[in-house]
Amino acid sequence: MSLSWMPRENGLKDHSRHGKENWGTDAPCTVYEKKPLTDPKGNVVPGLYTAWIRLNNPAQYNSYTTEMVKGVIAGFENSSTDREVVAVVFTGTGPNAFCTGGNTKEYSEYYSMRPEEYGAYMELFNNMVDSILMCKKPVICRVNGMRVAGGQEIGTACDLTITSDLAIFGQAGPRHGSAPVGGASDFLPSYFSIEDAMWSCVSCEMWTAYKMGWKGLLTKVLPVLKDDKGAWVRNPQVITDKFIDDGAIVYGEYKTGDEAKQARAWVNEKLKNNQYDFALLDAEVNRIVWIFANLFPGCLMKSIDGIRQKKKFFWDTMKNDHRYWLATNMMGEAFLGFGAFNTKKITGVDTIDFIKNRQLIAQGTLNDEKYMEEIMGKPQAK
């Protein structure tokens, strides 16, 4: 038996810094839009704008393809030099995800087992993070849903985060064949305690927006759902009151039991029927942009770059080394991890058999195709 049943993409990709089309409107793409600056009363300010860079791939939870990465780079570089732009808002399409990282279908079907190609892709990814950190305008991450894996990493490269309270945050690398070295291992120790940074990077545990806010990673967490009377409702799936449980403060954790099931069903029904409202989120974004507009732009950016420089120090120190490891890893664990995730509709599972994998390692088994067959999920009978 071979792995020939796993889908593969043929043809070579263009890894030039900018593709033939940087931005588009049809998913998957990156959308670039300049929205007029408004004052606190909603009046349009002539000649000044906020640049919106939107990841538009909602069917795949706004995971970024190679071409979308180029679009993000172009968007930030264009905003950086546009005299009319006051600030940049980085966001995603829909209520479900800001970004869940790289497109696993593309990773599995094209980049896996092609380390040099993935190295070229990682050069683009590094340029994407650089374009955020080097943008000469303030950058707000408007989190409209999940900010996970590479999405969490490009999000933490931004200057401020305003989020929907339905969003979740976390890394996924060690579970799916990679490591959080696209920014998380560089940035999170600056945001969190060293143990929170460690746990977030290695556990693949998803944290709620309220927990992340409590831990100090977010600027503001806002509700996006309303009850039948039109009143705002904070995410009913989450514990938003602080209390002590076995000596530890529990805040922002998901509820359990029947209460959790009922809350989850209510939220899912709202989202299914498009009954969500980002008005509070957008009002807060506009409020912050207005504050930026009423500051000296040179002094503002000197202040922002002074803070960014701490993130950039570790990012610049490690990014090139990470590029080569990530490329090499596409020959082994990444091939297996992304392949398992990409074929979950065929096998019914989205990860390898981790215990079997460790047993084979303990036995000193040769890491060949037969080895890989043993730990991958098997196609389900039709």
- List unreliable stretches of 5+ residues: none
Strand content: 15-25%
CATH superfamily of the largest domain, by name, is 2-enoyl-CoA Hydratase, Chain A, domain 1
Strand order of the largest sheet: 1-2-3-5-7-10
Topology as a string of helices (H) and strands (E)? EEHEEHHEEHEEHHHEHEEEEEHHHHHHH
How would you sum up the major sheet? 6 strands, mixed
Q: Determine the N-to-C terminus distance.
A: 18 Å
Which class do the helix and strand fractions yield?
alpha/beta
What is the CATH T-level topology of the largest domain?
Answer: 2-enoyl-CoA Hydratase, Chain A, domain 1
Number of strands: 14
Name of the top-level CATH class of the largest domain: Alpha Beta
Helix content: 40-55%
- Radius of gyration computed on alpha carbons: 21 Å
Shape: globular
Could you please describe the fold and organization of this structure?
This protein has helices spanning 66-81, 104-111, 115-134, 150-156, 173-176, 184-191, 194-203, 209-214, 257-272, 279-293, 297-329, 333-342, 344-347, 354-362, 369-375; strands spanning 29-38, 44-56, 85-92, 97-99, 139-143, 146-148, 160-164, 168-170, 207-208, 220-222, 225-226, 232-233, 243-245, 248-250. The chain has 382 residues and is α/β, with parallel strands linked by helices. It has 2 domains: 29-224 and 276-329, 2-enoyl-CoA Hydratase, Chain A, domain 1 (Alpha-Beta Complex); 352-382, no CATH class. The protein has a 6-stranded mixed beta sheet with strand order 1-2-3-5-7-10, with helices on both faces. Strands 4-6-8-9 form a 4-stranded mixed beta sheet. Strands 11-12 form a two-stranded antiparallel sheet. Helix 1 (66-81) runs parallel beside helix 3, helix 3 packs antiparallel against helix 11 and helix 6 packs antiparallel against helix 7. The longest helix has 33 residues, at 297-329. The chain is globular and about 65 Å long. It starts with 28 loop residues before the first strand and ends in a 7-residue tail after the last helix. The mean pLDDT is 93.
